[in-house]
Specification:
Order of helices and strands: EEEEEHHHHEEHHEEHHHEHEEHEEEHE
Distance between the termini: 61 Å
Radius of gyration: 28 Å
Strand order of the largest sheet: 1-2-3-4-5
Largest sheet: 5 strands, antiparallel
């Protein structure tokens, strides 16, 4: 058999094993059990079984919310998939990705092609032919289709790991020919942040609808009160109670909205601002200033050899390093500065009212503190270092894109020059 070999079945013909594209598949007929890659699995018919399960959910949630929920879930665990690809399934990420694609093609995902993978521009193209999501929806009316969020989440997660930046994947589904093409590129957004924004938008829409409902009900109650006031004191009391309940509900909704805004702005691990909130915080700073000619500096920081830390101490050890790093960062610079976790082990700081080219001492002091600060995890002591790129922010550069790009290039030079240093330009 091409790309596989059948292993002799058991004597009672109840167990069968086969290997396809380096994927072990095992049936235990007497137990009704099936494993794929050593993981317990279940087979469903794409149409009707899966289609009849998924289509009502997509309709009930709305395509936009359904897509983000599915993509967010499938992007989880892609770091482990990426490590499997580069360590086991190929000498390069490209080889590993195609090897992984051949493996999961044995489960009916379709066949994977990688016509483009450009690391400098952080762009790639992936084509999945006979994609299972496309085939499942091909007979549906166009307005009832929802695309390929399962594959999209996997692709976004894998290439975010491969390019070491947040990536997005635009998709084009050809339902007539049964394939999907993903165009991958670097972006400032993440699936999870987009999901939080959509939830917040939905909450605001529900709040507006409720406010309008309260307004209309209040008008109706007021009319009824005027008609019945002469002879119904009890009704007046019920109207007041109902109004208080509605006001309490509105207050609860306002509190929940504030909680969601805070959750959307803070990185849950380090407590620092996330990428989107970082941009907004700087915009607010510029608007509040009366003297808009003050000099600000932008610093990009990256923990050196972070992958080796994760490999040695696991994800819990890596998280401990990120938390300690964030604590030292806030303790070393000034309270009025703006801090954020920009992604992975990369951090960003805006030093307000500071010309970093004239006064680099705070940055050098921080790198020295990091180098000399012992870290303890599960009874082990170790040290880390960090690299940095720093530059001035041009006058009224609210979007920060130019300064971030410049600092990122300087950070890259610091890494290339041997790490544990800062380059200022």
């Amino acid at each position: 058999m091409d790309n596989g070999k059948v292993v002799t079945p058991s004597a009672d013909q109840n167990q069968f094993k086969i290997e396809l594209n380096n994927v072990p598949i095992h049936w235990e007929l007497n137990k009704g059990s099936f494993t794929f890659f050593g993981i317990k699995s279940v087979l469903f018919w794409k149409d009707p079984s899966l289609l009849n399960i998924i289509a009502p959910l997509a309709k009930e949630l709305g395509v936009d919310m359904f897509r983000l929920l599915v993509a967010d879930s499938t992007s989880e665990g892609t770091k482990e998939d990426y490590l499997l690809m580069v360590n086991t399934m190929g000498n390069t990420f490209e080889e590993g990705f195609l090897g992984w694609g051949r493996a999961i093609s044995a489960a009916g995902w379709g066949t994977f092609e990688l016509p483009e993978c450009n690391y400098p521009s952080r762009k790639a193209t992936v084509i999945v032919r006979n994609a299972w999501e496309v085939g499942m929806q091909s007979q549906l009316p166009e307005n009832e289709r929802w695309g390929c969020p399962f594959l999209q989440g996997k692709i976004i997660g894998l290439f975010s790991q491969a390019f070491a930046v947040n990536c997005w994947a635009d998709e084009y589904c050809d339902y007539n020919n049964g394939y999907v093409q993903f165009s991958i590129y670097q972006t400032g957004k993440t699936i999870h942040e987009e999901l939080l924004q959509l939830r917040e938008l939905r909450m605001e829409e529900r709040e507006r609808a409720l406010v309008e409902q309260v307004r209309l009900q209040t008008i109706d109650l007021a009319k009824a009160h005027n008609r019945l006031e002469a002879y119904s004191h009890s009704l007046e009391k019920k109207v007041e109670e109902r109004t208080q309940e509605l006001e309490l509900l509105l207050e609860i909704l306002r509190e929940e909205k504030q909680k969601l805004k805070k959750m959307a702005a803070i990185d849950p691990l380090t407590g620092l601002l996330n990428r989107r909130a970082f941009y907004e915080e700087y915009k607010l700073l510029i608007k509040k200033r009366q003297d808009d000619k003050k000099t600000d500096s932008l610093i990009m920081l990256d923990i050196d050899s972070f992958k080796s830390i994760n490999d040695r101490y696991g994800h819990a050890g890596g998280d401990h390093v990120l938390i300690e790093f964030s604590t030292l960062l806030k303790a070393t610079f000034y309270p009025h500065d703006i801090y954020a976790r920009f992604g992975g082990e990369e951090f960003i700081v805006i030093c307000t009212d500071l010309d970093i080219t004239a006064n680099p001492a705070p940055l050098h002091r921080f790198l020295k503190i990091i180098e000399e600060h012992p870290l303890y995890f599960e009874g082990q002591s170790f040290n880390i270092t960090a690299s940095a790129g720093a530059t001035l922010i041009e006058h009224q550069d609210i979007n920060l894109d130019k300064a971030i790009k410049a600092a990122d290039l300087l950070l890259y030079k610091a890494k290339k020059n041997g790490r544990n240093q800062a380059i200022i330009g």
